[in-house]
Amino acid sequence: MSKSSDGNPFPIVVLISGSGSNLQSIIDHRQDFEPGIDICTVISNNPEAYGLQRASQVGVSTTVINHQDYPNRSRYDAALMTEIDRHQPMLVVLAGFMRILTTEFVNHYSGRLINIHPSLLPLYPGLNTHQRAIESADKEAGATVHFVKPEVDAGPIIIQARVPVYGTDSRQQLAARVLAQEHLIYPRAIQWFAQGRLSVRNDKVLLDGNESSKQMVISDEI
Ligand code: NHR
Ligand code: GAR
After folding, report:
1. Catalytic: which of 29, 117, 130, 183?
2. End-to-end CA distance of the chain
3. Residue 62 sits in which domain range?
4. Same domain, 125 and 217
5. In a domain? residue 199
6. pLDDT digit string, tens, across residues 106-134
């Protein structure tokens, strides 16, 4: 299980669609641990994504592969795979990437493709998670980092963070509270992966071979 580091930074590719604040937090934490993280490239389906500028600002290469330029998902994902594989990453990181990926794509990166989703999965897979949590009068919400399976937002869970939901919350307020936790848990999950500390048994993710309390982060800050 433990694939210990050889001292070289751990190569990852990050896929984004939008603001890229999770990408920023990966950038900010990439030297915090051994091995460090090498972001080989950032790929966006959206040419307007602000995350592209965040990458450029720190000298990380960027590629736009616009889904509107492709006739179907299969051809789009094939183009994504070609670009990703050029960089030979050990891990592919979805950070606010908004396109559902084909089974072919997911299988190609099996065990080395992760996503962050803004809900406490298995609650609220898909879109509009914060609105749905508020409408359900949930007392808590959160975010989940998981391995990606073909079925959307259903893969084995690496780490989750919980936050309170207040009765007065707008969707935006709740999203901001959750996002602050995303910025803490995603670099941590990537660190664990890079250090070879994660394994999957019976669809459950183990940290250092055990189910660990570190895989649930509870925040009561506002
Ligand atoms: N692909 C697979 N196969 N499995 C997962 O678990 C995936 C995935 C692709 C993206 C991120 C996911 C999220 O965290 C993710 C997980 C987009 C949609 C969606 O409906 C759903 C889930 C996620 C991302 N996208 C629309 C589509 O038709 C487009 C929406 C838009 O462009 O705004 O692809 O939430
Ligand atoms: C994050 O909240 C992420 O969990 C969510 O979008 C936001 C992206 O923010 N992802 C999805 O909803 C995927 N469908 P960012 O671009 O600032 O990292």
Report:
1. 117
2. 38
3. 9-109
4. yes
5. yes
6. 999 999 999 999 999 999 999 999 999 99
**Cα 97 to ligand 1 centroid, rounded to whole Å:** 7
CATH of the domain at 26: 3.40.50.170
* DSSP annotation of 67: G
| Whether residue 20 has its Cβ less than 6 Å from ligand 2 | yes
Q: Is residue 3 part of a domain?
A: no
Contact criterion met (CB below 8 Å) for 193 and 91? yes
Q: State the total domains in the chain.
A: 2
What token pair was written down for 161? Answer: 């963070």
Active site (annotated) includes residue 183: no
Alpha carbon 210 to chain centroid, angstroms: 22
Same domain, 86 and 123: no
pLDDT tens per residue, range 14-69: 999 999 999 999 999 999 989 999 999 999 999 999 999 999 999 999 999 999 99
Distance CA 219, CA 216 (A): 10
Mutate to test the pocket of ligand 1, among 117, 152, 179 (most ligand atoms within 8 A of CB): 152
Same domain, 38 and 129: no
Boundary of a domain, candidates 109, 128, 158: 109
For the CA of 16, the closest atom of ligand 2 is 16
Q: Do the beta carbons of residue 197 and residue 207 sit within 8 Å?
A: yes
Question: Is the Cα torsion angle 133, 222, 214, 200 positive or negative in sign?
Answer: positive
